[in-house]
Specification:
Length: 335
């Protein structure tokens, strides 16, 4: 199968990330045709000079638009794309040199219409970044790539590392104007057609720097919680009990504190045991005690931040039936 790829990368005030990502492109080992389309989404600190420099050796298109959000930036780039598959990347990822080889081999074998790959950390990451990476990828938390096989029935790719046939993406009219949440909402629309083949390519990993501070991580998870009741209201057939787990976890933790004050320590012991299990798994994976200890904090923060946003959104949108665009305007961009 002769395949070709259009990489689409929205960026907002992160020129250094684009430089590092483009540098990783220069090391790609591949014989397939590809292009890189970078969309500057209203940045003040642009990456234009960096793109111009790398354009001497890489097939790059550079677009600029007023700030309309990453969804619209990706849609605009897709309109300019010329190759078979669109691959959406975040600006804070790096590509291993065999990335495209892994993808082409799997597509030859499985003929996915839409696919994704996992992410991983790097030895140069800070302790915070490594703790966040553990929290977002561990099977003991709400994060992680579900499934270990290349063809995964319930797998949902995310836009930091997501590929889709260009014609299929255009037929769906691209991403919606919500952010975050535009990628799971797109996958929900895809899954309504049982003939569309979505899969995981576990070997197509990217190095993902993620959030560099605890505060940014907390805000990100809070917004993820806000978004979930909104997109499952749009697509109720994809609402699932697992989306409520962080809220149950958080309520249970609050009850454990109350129980402890009343002289009952069973619940708090359960949460303590969970923390110990997290530390042990993180020690095995990261081989660093400080990262393991911090991972307990980042994991509990993940649950609490997501749960607070989820509960607030659920009450406003699902119980009081208020319009999401009116209640949470910060989640929506006007096209």
């Amino acid at each position: 199968m002769n395949l070709s790829f259009s990489f689409i990368i929205p960026v907002y005030n992160r020129p250094q990330e684009i430089q590092e990502l483009l540098e990783s492109f220069t090391k790609l080992i591949t014989r397939v045709k590809y292009e890189i389309i970078i969309v500057e989404d209203g940045s003040i600190d642009t990456c234009e000079k960096i793109v111009t420099r790398y354009s001497q050796n890489l097939p790059i298109k550079y677009l600029y638009q007023s700030n309309k959000g990453p969804g619209e930036a990706r849609n605009r780039a897709a309109d300019k794309a010329q190759y078979d598959f669109l691959i959406f990347l975040d600006s804070d990822v790096l590509l291993p040199e065999d990335y495209l080889e892994k993808i082409t081999n799997s597509l030859d074998k499985y003929s996915f219409d839409c696919f994704g790959g996992p992410d991983q950390d790097d030895h140069q990451f800070t302790i915070v970044q490594k703790a966040v990476d553990f929290t977002m990828t561990s099977y003991l938390t709400t994060g992680g790539i579900r499934g270990k096989k290349e063809s995964t029935k319930n797998y949902e790719p995310r836009s930091f590392n997501l590929g889709i046939k260009r014609k299929l993406f255009n037929k769906l009219n691209g991403f919606s104007n919500i952010h975050p949440g535009e990628d799971p909402e797109l996958i929900m629309r895809l899954k309504k057609n049982p003939r569309i083949k979505i899969g995981l390519i576990p070997s197509a990993k990217v190095i993902h720097k993620r959030r560099i501070s605890i505060k940014k991580f907390r805000i990100q998870l809070y917004k993820f919680g806000l978004v979930r009741p909104i997109i499952t209201q749009w697509h109720p057939e994809f609402d699932h009990i697992t989306f409520y787990f962080p809220l149950v976890f958080t309520i249970g933790f609050c009850l454990s504190i109350i129980s402890l004050l009343l002289g009952y320590n069973f619940l708090i012991l359960m949460y303590s045991f969970y923390g110990i299990v997290l530390i042990l798994e993180c020690l095995i994976k990261k081989r660093n005690l400080w990262i393991a200890l911090l991972s307990v904090y980042t994991t509990y923060m993940q649950f609490f931040s997501y749960a607070f946003g989820f509960l607030l959104s659920y009450i406003q949108v699902r119980i009081f039936n208020k319009k999401p665009e009116k209640v949470f305007p910060e989640l929506f961009f006007s096209n």
